[in-house]
Amino acid sequence: MAFIKNILNHTKRLLLIITILAFTTLSITGCNSKLLRKSETEIPQLVSSILSDPKTFNYPLSSESPNIFGYTYEGLITQNPLNGKLEPDLAKSWEVSEDKLKITFTLKNNLKWSDGEPLTVDDVVFTYNNIYLNEDIPTDLRDILRIGKDRKLPTVRKIDDQRVEFSVPEPFRPFLQNTGAAILPAHILREFVETKDKDGKPIFLSKWGVDTEPEEIIVNGPYQLERYDTSQRVVFRRNPYYWRKDEQGNSQPYIERIIWQIVESTDTSLLQFRSGGLDTVGVSPDYFSLLKKQEEQGNFKIYNGGPAASTSFVFFNLNQGKRDGKPLVDPVKSRWFNNVQFRQAIAYAIDRQTMINNIYRGLGQTQNSPISVQSQYYLSPKKGLKVYNYNPEKAKEMLLKSGFKYNDENKLEDAQGNRVRFALLTNAGNKIREAMGSQIKQDLSKIGIQVDFTPLAWNTFIDKLSNTLNWEASLIGLTGGLEPNDGANVWSPDGGLHMFNQKPQAGQEPIEGRKVAPWENRIHELYIQAAQEFDDEKVKALYAESQQITQENLPLIYLVNAYSLSAVRNKFAGIKFSALGGAFWNIHEIRITK
């Protein structure tokens, strides 16, 4: 689900947003054929597509994909998706103090905004102090800037015209990469932030919506917004003031225009790609065999980035609390779900390899960890991570040892004679996920468990999962990245994505009697310690222990890690495909050849 360079420069924004579709990768479609034919003879362009309209052009207020910001904004640093290293962006260098409490950035010389105005240290200080750290502006970015157990915020100050200093209240290793957030133009936005509406809120909150004229959106990235036609297309043109140049001194990027057609069906995108009107398309398992046969004829290549950074899993509601005296989960079923042997038996009973072979057409691998395989902190099974290979007989054995029994019809019952049956939910419309749920139902029937599998409309599903909390089991996925701390709110018992034992969030009804297991607290402690530790080997050891605990206790039963696949026309030179960045993460280097 690579969204070009955006998921690298703005990873924190997108990490741990629940994935609605298994393969909402960037696909490519075209404008109407007349416009395309005319444009192709005039300027080099990339024609791409998105599945829905952007929701806003206001970066701090955006929390959704698709969005324009991967092309339009850059931060102080970026992360290379090929090797995971942090690299300069608007900053040319940085220095971390010996006590790890200060980071000093030095900006590149002669940076400019897309309107030609200078980009300075004042813009950096304004962006952080007046927007990201401003409690009057409800931005998700503030959460990723919070430090350690007490969740304190950093301070940001100007040292001189070239340097800016970030101070943190305690050593916090992941903080450096959080400075990849976009820098915004103070000369345009300061007035909007300081001016209040009749309710006392900054008028900034109503500025730069999707109804804003494109020329009013001032940017610092490789492209600026040229045109937006609702439900039709988004058009970008090269930013003439962008800072990058190649070794010969030529301005980058080389591609003059990028067009995103808004196409709500991936099937339609596939048809348009096959007809020759599109430059690239995300390749799902359903499409792979068909497209693979047409590579030479269609003059394109299917890139395989290996395992994606996302996760997919099934999990039980472990919350033992009550609302208004009523248990969130039937106490009988809650006893099953909170029995670790029961969860392990479920893991052994799911045939993940068959899932890969049949549903993913072999384009994936079994998943065993919450940490992406690309991360240096990933613990592989070869190095001791516990796995649950398909073994229904072992599953039955574990259930019997933990007090369950089989009746005359070979159906599973608990020690009190209650038939083992539960409801499994997922989001409707995701063909891959619906097929996974159907197989899980079939697999568990082989060990005597009845699963009532029900795909729900997305909003209904999410309301149950995170608000009413009256669900039993669910099937879903999360995005991922190289830094495990990005997933800290999954593993913090108070975190907003601690879905398997959710604490009420702001504005929700209280819960009485919620219990947090010792292993939950231990994982949380390990994540805090790992964020405070700067010795890589010690960090690896801390995250290794956290992965071992998650696999032993199975709050999330991991399933399949799909491969990251895209088809791209051969006319593009400079493609460095990555599961984390996709085909066009290095858009400034890519050329169009004849």
In short:
The protein has 594 residues and is an alpha+beta fold.
Radius of gyration: 25 Å
Quote the distance from N terminus to C terminus. 29 Å
Low-confidence stretches: 1-40
The largest sheet, given as strand count, sense and whether it forms a barrel, is: 5 strands, mixed
The total of helices stands at: 20
On the 0 to 100 scale, the average pLDDT is 90
- What is the structural class? alpha+beta
What features would you describe in this structure?
With about 600 residues, the protein is an alpha+beta fold. It is about 30% helix and about 20% strand. The chain is built from 20 helices and 25 strands. A hairpin with a 2-residue loop joins strand 14 and strand 15. Helix 5 packs parallel to helix 8, helix 13 runs antiparallel to helix 15 and helix 19 runs antiparallel to helix 20. The N terminus is likely disordered.
Which properties best describe this structure?
594 residues, alpha+beta, four-stranded mixed β-sheet, 25 strands, globular, disordered N terminus
Helix/strand layout:
Blueprint: H1 6-9, H2 11-14, H3 33-40, E1 45-50, H4 69-72, E2 77-79, E3 86-88, E4 91-96, E5 102-107, H5 121-132, H6 141-144, E6 155-158, E7 163-167, H7 175-178, H8 186-194, E8 223-229, E9 233-238, E10 257-262, H9 266-274, E11 280-282, H10 285-292, H11 295-298, E12 300-307, E13 311-316, E14 322-323, E15 326-327, H12 331-337, H13 340-349, H14 352-359, E16 364-366, H15 392-401, E17 405-406, E18 412-413, E19 421-427, H16 431-445, E20 450-456, H17 458-468, E21 473-478, H18 488-491, H19 518-532, H20 536-553, E22 557-558, E23 560-569, E24 572-573, E25 591-592
Parallel strand pairs: 1-10, 19-20, 19-21
Antiparallel strand pairs: 2-3, 4-5, 5-7, 6-7, 8-9, 9-10, 11-23, 12-23, 13-21, 13-22, 14-15, 16-23, 17-18, 24-25
